[in-house]
Amino acid sequence: MIRMRRLRVNETMRRLVRETSVSVDDLLYPVFIEEGEDIKTPVESMPGIYKWSIDRFDEELARIVEAGIPGILIFGVPKKKDEFGSEAYNDNGITQRAIRYIKERAPRLLVVADVCLCEYTSHGHCGVVCDHDVANDETLPLLAKMAVSVAKAGADIIAPSDMMDGRVEYIREALDGEGFSNIAIMAYSAKFASAYYGPFREAADSAPAFGDRKTYQMDPPNGREAIRECENDIDEGADIIMVKPALAYLDVLKEMSFRTDHPLAVYNVSGEYAMVKAAAKKGWIDEKRIVMENMIAMKRAGARIVITYHALDVARWLKDDI
Ligand code: PBG
Ligand code: ZN
């Protein structure tokens, strides 16, 4: 008889044949920096996650550096919003100031800058609105301006999350033209129009004031189209390809892992985090085991990089287990 159980007899044997692992090196931690002073506001739907003002952020930064996490994904929450998202490409905007502050204090921590207009526009859409639609080509120069502005502030990786067509190539050219040819692009390539972003929009104050994001973010039933999005971004010069959300879209990640040798990232988003935290708080699930199982699932599906709000906890649990 073929006895599959021979290789499961004890933990040492299981360790020996284990195919997938999670390391602190895999993690990127999203952070919210709000314009203002003395702010540490809890995000209600995301227990453990706060909005920080720059002057209070040292506390969290120390935890991140101590945990050994390679990088953070930074989201700025500005005071002023307007139709064109001007604060997004203000060299002295909240995001740019936060990046400079962090790179001064923790120069080796990678700072990934999310590039999108929705946190900065009065209407909350990811691009410029013309006739109640988000205008693709008019948005591209503004995204490029933001990319160059955050690169000047010291960002190591640019992560466009807007889902406009052609933005990777446009941003690449703008970065190269300004002397930033060494700054990598991590593209939110297959980003679905998902209900899983709900808690994030509370945190970043970025919910659209009218309509939804379905004319630019992807339709959840479309797996093949997701592959086209990823392949387009590879052709346009993206260095890292991302799938988002994570757990409900691991089929897309897995398929891309067969098709490309580019590093793949997956974004374990706010709604996925909120669901785990809520059930854990009720005592209905074992938080650590559920989170680690989710981490393994993302790695097994082909992720090289996992962007997750659980990053500090995961880093701590990995240390505890040694
Ligand atoms: C901005 C952006 C969003 C997220 C990352 N960048 C929200 C959105 O597209 O509405 C979602 C992250 C999360 O839910 O954790 N474009
Ligand atoms: Zn956006």
Concise synopsis of the structure shown:
The chain is α/β, with parallel strands linked by helices and 322 residues long. Helix content is 39%, strand content 18%.
Q: Quick one: biggest sheet? A: 8 strands, parallel, barrel
Within the CATH hierarchy, at the fold level, what is the topology?
TIM Barrel
Anisotropy-based shape: globular
Q: Hetero groups bound?
A: ligand PBG, zinc ion
Please state the structural category.
alpha/beta
C-alpha end-to-end distance: 36 Å
Look at the structure and give the mean pLDDT.
97
Could you say how many structural domains there are in total? 1
Helix content: 25-40%
The number of distinct helices, counting runs of at least 4 residues, comes to: 11
SSE succession: HEEEHEHEEEHEHEHHEHEHHEH
In CATH terms, the superfamily is Aldolase class I
The CATH C-level name is Alpha Beta
Write down the Rg.
20 Å
Order of adjacent strands in the largest pleated sheet: 1-4-5-8-9-10-11-12
If classified by CATH, what would the architecture be? Alpha-Beta Barrel
Please count the beta strands (DSSP E, at least 2 residues each). Answer: 12
Strand content: 15-25%
Report on the structure:
This protein has one domain: TIM Barrel, CATH 3.20.20.70. Helix 8 (250-259) links the parallel strand 10 (240-244) and strand 11 (264-268). The chain has 11 helices and 12 strands. Helix 3 packs parallel to helix 4, helix 4 packs across helix 5 (167-177) and helix 7 crosses helix 8. It is 39% helix and 18% strand. It binds ligand PBG and zinc ion (ZN). Residues 116, 118, 126, 161-162 line the site of zinc ion.
